[in-house]
Amino acid sequence: AQLNSEFVNDLLSENPFSEDSVSLFMLLVILAPLLEEIVFRGLLFSRVYTKWGMTTGIIVSSLAFGLLHPINPIGALIFGIIACVVYVHTRTLWTSISIHSFNNLIVWGLMLAERNSDMTQVSSEFLGEYLYQGSIAMLIGGLIISILLKKWWPIKGSYIPYQTNRMSTDV
């Protein structure tokens, strides 16, 4: 900034991800999941778990994750809970990073489809069918998620992956 302040001002004043779908893909599908999972599952969850336990760690880190996503905080909160449980169950952060990337890939695809769509008026029949299919998908998805969370929820006294991996290398 001290060498070329005009260049830095130009760089900061424009949004490099606004129109370029490749840049948006890199940000949404690769960088955001990687950084967010490291911060919220790898660091925040691990720290809160160490201080207050598993359930509090899951809830606090997922709540912080949800608050970071103001467009859909409740969905992000639920996603954060699922990502924590998957992280503890699989004992690797790569699984939650992959799930997060896949979720964001779907969002990126929908954003591209919406951008390329020429639909200006949507009929009430189309919206009704869309609502019906979305409700069925949410019902089935909610049932599957509930079963997996019940089955995979960490039992009292279980360790987070970091501690388990550390204990196995201390032997």
Topology:
Layout (H helix, E strand, L loop, with lengths): L4 H9 L7 H32 L1 H15 L4 H18 L2 H24 L7 H29 L8 H10 L1
Helix pairs in contact: 2-3, 2-4, 2-5, 3-4, 4-5
Described by the principal axes of the CA atoms, the overall outline is flat
State the end-to-end distance.
50 Å
Low-confidence stretches: none
How large is the count of helical segments? 7
Largest sheet: none
Strand content: under 5%
Percent in helix: over 70%
From N to C, what is the helix and strand string?
A: HHHHHHH
- Supply the helix-strand structural class: mainly alpha
Rounded to the nearest angstrom, the radius of gyration is 20 Å
Question: How many DSSP-defined strands?
Answer: 0
Mean pLDDT: 82
Report on this structure:
This protein has helices spanning 5-13, 21-52, 54-68, 73-90, 93-116, 124-152, 161-170. It has 171 residues and is mostly helical. It is 80% helix and 0% strand. It is flat and about 60 Å long. It is built from 7 helices and no strands.
